[in-house]
Design goal:
The complex is a heterotrimer. Chain A is of the alpha+beta class. Chain A is built from eleven helices and 14 strands. Helices cover 30% and strands 23% of the residues of chain B. Chain B has 20 helices and 28 strands. Chain B has a seven-stranded mixed β-sheet. A six-stranded mixed β-sheet of chain B has the order 7-15-14-13-8-28. Classes of the chains: A alpha+beta, B alpha+beta, C alpha+beta.
């Protein structure tokens, strides 16, 4: 433990409005901390530069899941366990459910939050590709009020986001319109549990009369931010899935990502595996399309 | 007298209740009044001279105790074998993380800031990081030629076999460093008492090693140094020699401050600064007949010892002796050396050289099989040692071991033949390819050759007035079951209930030196001495006329009471005596290398997923002949735990190096298997007995480390047709090998993998 | 002498109310071990990977090395020391003893807490459930074999116990 607790301040104002006020009144001084599964690791290794933290943990406004007719609104401080315990999230958003299951061990799922995962903005974060393909929207809140933005715009660069100073994510909104889609997700890590992803993919597709009507591919750990494979999606839409298309999709996917060599893996491996996962998805989509 | 057998029964672990209730006290659970915390300032470069040390601002340095090499009262070394390793660097550093200064302070939270505030300027010197660089001699960083030690084993006439060979098979095999990753980090507390001297308590395997090192470092006589082992949360060799270093540090701080000092590492410090398994390179050149019989071979075996000698000579020794595997070699030459590099010194890790050389041997056997055109089973059947034949050191195998039958049994248990065929057919068009691989091997228990004689272990058994019996050994418990099994042995020998026997906590003031807790010697060698000493207790009481035959537990108790009342303290001692007729030549490295070998057949079944290039072990059969199983639950636990570490060694555990420093020194990026990564490990024992071991037992602690890696890598070869000669085999390596193959075939750069 | 940077924290630990002063960013792990003397909670890594520090907060399994004490204010904590109320062993603890689930013992308290939590979610876990439920607890000694058997055995025992209570 390489930090001195005496050097840090942590407050828990107890309500969203109180937190938002504090952030507004004392700008750029308070780092929000939810479940702590990222922040506390930095802290213990002596690498947490911010000295003042404000707790979002268990704030009721942030830790609830609302189900409306057209969308599900997930509070930013819902834990992965909260997601896994919600019937509609599990049923209608299986990509998010599988991401929740992959993230750390059970103890870390009990503390890690969806909002924290988004704001931490690691390109390797497990849940972000799913949010990309579900075209989530974020409700952001600050003393100035709320705004709603497409999640797709949120990450602007490596660990850079559109979050304004003194702003928090209040909720993540998922439109309830993916019932007819085939979903596929896979995380590739160094081991079967408790692994930071080397590559991960979340995909949705719909085939009508043998033609790809819609397809969405979200990937993690292959670029400075999680990304949608737009070119690959374009190449697939409106086409019939055959061997030539699958090959073309593989090449296009590999071409549009920017993986790196790092302590966990290599660029070449990541590229090859993304290609393979896209192919695996397309085979699944093709098979389901036949029977569906 | 109790005639129920205790040995051979899974009696409850002696200290088990404390462990499951959280009451067992490990060193970091202990706090002493007035205690200071210690921290270490370490080198940030691999090699160079220390030009200047500056103490930065913002720290109240007068609150700190600061120790440097100049404060060392005795010899500035961590006494072990060569005594070349400084306890604190003095003007020169030879590896990253080498300790330079020590700090102590009442508040542990201030220490990291203080360490960070110390600036050290160096004049760097060129450094060496690999075996090849060390051999290249562009720099001489140790001794005359960067070589800590070398051995030569020669049997028969190797030079004559090449001409007779139908095949000459060559191969080079490498293994990487491996971190022991005990879940409890290294830690000690040192206390100075002006009259009694220095007492160090902590997480140690070998209290007497620490004792010897402290005497030299602190310039104190034997009776003024005391070392006590506290409950130890895993060791695996990683706490064999390293504790002498951390104990020395705490002792120096305690001596300078006059206060108790606790040093406990955090995970990152422990991983980057302490010992690991020696990386190795083995080169085989083998002469083989058309039928696949070994005629002879040349093996070059090299291990990377890091910056100082520490235990490298002994690791090398064991690796060298095991390099020929469980096979009959009519002739062989084994040239072995341990070389220096500018990395933290490597040390003991379960297996101790044998996992390295046996990985090479078992991979090489499969390679030979392929060249000759016979199966991995056949190549082994034709060469496995038979009773009456000699090993590479010309030790005659006297026991009636039938390795052919052991292999057959392993094949049957794993359904090897049927699976191999099924996999071959099924793999043709699969994206998940299956394979099955074999390793046959041996592991010698106890110290090599004359080692046990040199150790001259002593064991005591004490009869107490209340009829309880205490076992007195310096052998330590760190999960493997030392306490339990040694008590079983004493209880069995005395015909008393298991509950009446206890074992003293290893404390150099209370127990004799029964040797280090290493080399799979505790049950076999120390256990036999416990048996003797216990026998001595009974004999003494019988001779005194206090005990009749067929005595009850109560009668034994009365006899002890009477003896103590009349004659005082009641202890019986046993000292190691080498068995007669054991011959070992230290010069030629020839003779009876070990008192007993355990034998094993391990079979791994894997699936390689060509989408992700990752390997899953689906089934694992671990079959071994171990003399006698003294406690089935504990014995099985040793095997499953060792196999898990071996699978980690093969598939997961890579140390990422940069200029001699470990980059991935965290549990998040040094990957050991979780419960979701391992198959059911099926364990089977055979028992041939062992005249040299307690109740017929052989050592088994290290055996399970030797087989899994080659079995798994042989299975990968079976699945993919691609050879891997280096471990760990990561998915990235599999991808790269397949891509290279594919590029060679298609002349296309695009990696395929899936259909 | 207390520092104004410290806060008053009230919580219930192993069914006993506790009031203490601590810096809000002190780790729950350290408060439990040092202030409350509950050294059964272990530190193996400090990064939430090994699970040796596992405790239950309001019945939920967490890695106490990652929880700032302020966030545990008002909570109900159970550590290994409070697994049972009396001197008798919990079926999990007995099963660990019988099956050889504890070797060196350092991971044992955390892994028993994880097993306790698993059994509260899945009273009859399959082997896969157990492997997944314990995948956040690293054990270097056992290869997990006898740990999984212990968890299974305890589940059977608890079920038998429940049966005989009817």
């Amino acid at each position: 433990m390489r930090a001195d607790p005496a050097d840090y301040e942590l407050v828990a104002p107890g309500s969203l409005s109180a937190v938002v006020s504090l952030l507004a009144q004392q700008p750029n001084q308070w780092l929000p901390i939810a479940g702590g599964t990222d922040v506390m690791v930095q802290y213990a290794s002596g690498k947490l530069a911010p000295r003042k933290l404000v707790s979002l943990w268990n704030l009721p406004e942030l830790r609830r899941i609302e189900v409306a007719d057209n969308e599900v609104i997930i509070g930013a401080c819902c834990t992965y366990t909260d997601l896994l315990g919600h019937e509609i999230v599990m049923r209608e958003f299986p990509l998010l459910a599988s991401a929740a299951r992959w993230t750390g061990g059970i103890a870390n799922q009990n503390r890690g939050t969806l909002g924290g995962n988004i704001v931490n903005a690691s390109p390797a974060a497990d849940s972000l590709p799913a949010l990309l393909v579900y075209e989530a929207e974020l409700i952001l809140v600050s003393a100035r009020g709320e705004r709603r933005i497409p999640y797709i715009d949120f990450h602007t660069g490596y660990k850079q986001t559109l979050l304004a100073p003194a702003e928090l994510i209040r909720a993540i909104c998922l439109a309830r319109r993916f019932a007819g889609y085939v979903s596929y997700s896979r995380k590739v890590g160094a081991r079967n549990a408790q692994a930071i992803s080397k590559v991960c993919i979340a995909a949705l597709g719909r085939v009508v009369d043998g033609v790809v009507e819609d397809v969405r591919l979200g990937t993690g750990s292959v670029a400075p931010t999680p990304v949608r494979l737009r070119e690959t999606e374009r190449a697939l839409r409106g086409k019939r899935i055959d061997a030539a298309l699958v090959s073309h999709a593989r090449r296009t996917a590999i071409g549009e990502i920017r993986p790196i060599d790092d302590i966990r893996s290599t660029a070449a491996y990541r590229a090859a595996v993304v290609g393979n996962l896209v192919v695996e998805f397309l085979h699944l989509l093709h098979d389901r399309g036949q029977s569906g | 007298m109790n005639t129920d057998h205790i040995v051979g029964v899974s009696v409850p672990r002696k200290e088990g209740r404390d462990k499951v209730t959280g009451r067992a006290l490990y060193i970091d659970d202990i706090t002493l009044p007035g205690m200071l915390y210690g921290a270490t300032v370490r080198s940030s470069i691999p090699r160079g001279k220390i030009r200047k040390i500056s103490f930065g601002t913002g720290i109240a340095w007068d609150e700190f105790v600061i120790v440097s090499a100049k404060d060392i009262p005795g010899q500035n070394c961590v006494a072990l074998i060569a005594d070349d390793q400084p306890c604190l660097a003095d003007g020169v550093v030879n590896h990253p993380e080498e300790p330079i200064l020590l700090l102590a302070h009442p508040s542990q939270h201030i220490l990291p800031k203080a360490v960070a505030a110390i600036e050290i300027e160096y004049d760097p010197m060129p450094a060496l990081f690999t075996i090849e660089e060390s051999e290249g001699h562009t720099e001489i960083i140790w001794g005359k030629d960067n070589t800590f030690k070398s051995y030569l084993i020669e049997k028969g006439d190797v030079d004559a076999v090449w001409a007779q060979a139908d095949y000459i098979v060559e191969g080079e095999y490498t293994t990487g460093a491996q971190e022991q990753l005990y879940i409890e980090n290294n830690g000690v507390i040192a206390v100075l008492d002006v009259e009694r001297g220095i007492t160090v308590s902590g997480s140690v395997q070998c209290p007497y090693y620490v004792h010897k090192a402290l005497m030299k470092l602190c310039s104190l006589p034997e009776h003024k140094v005391r070392v006590v082992q506290t409950e130890t949360g895993g060791a695996f060799g990683g706490k064999e020699d390293y504790p002498s270093m951390i104990a020395g540090h705490a002792a120096l701080l305690a001596m300078k401050s006059g206060k108790p000092v606790k040093i406990v590492y955090d995970r990152m410090e422990d991983m980057v600064a302490t010992t690991k398994r020696h990386p190795s390179r083995t080169r085989h050149r083998t002469a083989v007949t058309r039928e696949g019989k070994l005629l002879g071979g040349d093996i070059e075996f090299v291990v990377d010892g890091g910056a100082y000698a520490t235990l490298s000579s002994v690791v090398l020794s064991r690796g060298t002796i095991h390099a020929g595997g469980p096979y009959y070699w009519p002739s062989i030459r084994i040239r072995a050396k341990a070389v220096a590099t500018n990395a933290p010194p490597n040390g003991a890790f379960r297996g101790f050289g044998a996992p390295q050389s046996l990985f090479a041997m078992e991979r090489h056997m499969d390679r030979i099989a392929e060249m000759v055109g016979i199966s991995p089973v056949e190549i082994r059947r034709r060469n496995l040692l038979k009773s009456g034949q000699t090993t590479t050191t010309e030790q005659v195998i006297h026991e009636p071991i039938d390795l052919d039958q052991l292999l057959e049994r392993g094949l049957a248990l794993s359904d090897y033949r049927a699976k191999k065929e099924r996999f071959q057919t099924g793999n043709a068009s699969a994206t998940r390819k299956k394979g099955i691989g074999i390793a046959t091997f041996l592991h010698g228990a106890g110290f090599t050759g004359s080692g046990e004689r040199y150790l001259a272990s002593v064991v005591g058994v004490e009869g107490c007035a209340d009829g309880r019996v205490r076992v007195l050994v310096s052998s330590t418990e760190f999960g493997q079951g030392t306490k339990t099994v040694l008590c079983q042995i004493a209880a069995e020998e005395l015909g008393l209930p298991y509950e009446t026997v206890e074992i003293a906590q290893p404390d150099t003031e209370q127990v004799p030196n029964s040797g280090p807790t290493v080399a799979s010697r505790t049950v076999m060698v120390v256990g036999k001495l416990v048996q003797s000493a216990a026998h001595g207790i009974r004999q003494t009481l019988t001779n005194a006329g206090f005990l009749r035959e067929g005595y009850s537990k109560e009668e034994f108790s009365e006899a002890c009471t009477r003896y103590i009342a009349e004659r005082g303290e009641f202890k019986s001692w046993a000292r190691y005596e080498p068995p007669p007729g054991i011959f070992w030549d230290d010069e030629k490295y020839r003779g009876e290398a070990y008192a007993a070998y355990a034998w094993a057949v391990y079979i791994a079944e894997v699936t390689v997923d060509l989408t992700t290039f990752s390997v899953a072990v689906d089934d694992f059969v671990a079959l071994q002949e171990v003399g006698r199983v003294l406690n089935p639950v504990l014995a099985r636990g040793q095997i499953t735990g060792g196999v898990a570490q071996g699978i980690g060694y093969a598939l997961f555990e890579k140390v990422v190096w940069q200029q001699g420093r470990m980059l991935n020194g965290q549990m998040t990026n040094y990957i050991m298997p979780t419960s979701a990564d391992l198959p059911s490990i099926r364990v089977y024992f055979e028992e041939l007995g062992n005249v040299h071991g307690a109740f017929g037992a052989k050592g088994i602690g290290e055996l399970p480390m030797d087989g899994p890696a080659p079995a798994v890598v042989n299975a990968i070869k079976d699945a993919l047709g691609v050879r891997f000669d280096s471990i760990p085999v990561l998915p990235e390596d599999i991808f790269q090998a397949l891509a290279a193959d594919s590029a060679a075939e298609n002349n296309s750069p695009a990696p395929q993998g899936a259909r | 002498m207390s520092d104004p940077g410290q806060r008053e924290i009230s919580l219930v630990v192993n069914r006993e109310p506790k009031k203490l002063r601590a810096y809000p960013m002190e780790r729950l792990l350290d408060v439990l071990r040092i202030q409350l003397g509950l050294t059964g909670v272990k530190e193996g890594c400090g990064e939430g990977e090994c699970g040796s520090c596992s405790v239950l907060i309001d019945g939920v399994l967490v890695n106490s090395c990652l929880v700032p004490i302020l966030q545990a204010d008002g909570a109900n904590i159970i550590t290994i020391e409070g697994l049972t109320e009396g001197p008798q062993l919990h079926p999990l603890q007995q099963a660990f003893l019988d099956c050889g689930g504890a070797q060196c013992g350092i991971c044992t308290p955390g892994i028993i807490m994880a097993a306790r939590y698993l059994s509260s979610k899945k009273p009859q876990p399959t082997l896969d459930d157990i492997r997944e439920g314990l995948s956040g607890n690293l054990c270097r000694c056992t290869g997990y074999a006898q740990i999984c058997e212990a968890v299974s055995a305890a589940a059977v025992r608890e079920d038998t116990g429940r049966e005989s209570e009817r």
